[in-house]
Specification:
Helix content: 40-55%
CATH superfamily: Transposase IS200-like
Number of domains: 1
Radius of gyration: 14 Å
Strand order of the largest sheet: 2-3-1-4
CATH class: Alpha Beta
CATH architecture: 2-Layer Sandwich
């Protein structure tokens, strides 16, 4: 099964600049490699991330997202303590959105994810 997944930074803070984005992309790829996750596409835009993932079912997707968000947040907090929000050490908002994708939609979703920086977000 394929899933289009999106999630936002805590309080939707627009902190995903080029330096932070580079670190995050590296962390996501490292996590995917270590855990054998299949990330087909990913992109950021200021305060959120879009990914196209392959997972067996929703339960596996839930576990994958839990690991990706928690591990990347811990790594970011260690590398960038100035991004800390008050006394709370959260980097991502609690939830994420997702939509199951048919195989014939993959090309369209890949293009949408790649074009994230071109889409105006307010």
């Amino acid at each position: 099964m394929y899933f289009h997944v999106w999630f936002v930074t805590k309080y939707r803070r627009p902190i995903l600049d080029s330096e932070i984005e580079k670190k995050l992309m590296d962390y996501f790829l490292e996590i995917a490699k270590n855990k054998d996750y299949n990330i087909l596409e990913m992109e950021t835009n200021r305060d959120h991330v879009h990914m196209l993932l392959e997972a067996q079912d929703r339960r596996e997707l839930w576990n994958t997202m839990r690991v990706i968000k928690s591990v990347s947040a811990k790594k970011m907090q260690g590398d960038t303590p100035h991004l800390r929000v008050g006394n709370v050490r959260h980097f991502w908002a609690k939830r994420y959105g997702y939509r199951e994708i048919d195989e014939d939609e993959i090309g369209c979703i890949r293009k949408y994810i790649r074009d994230q920086k071109k889409i105006p977000h307010t």
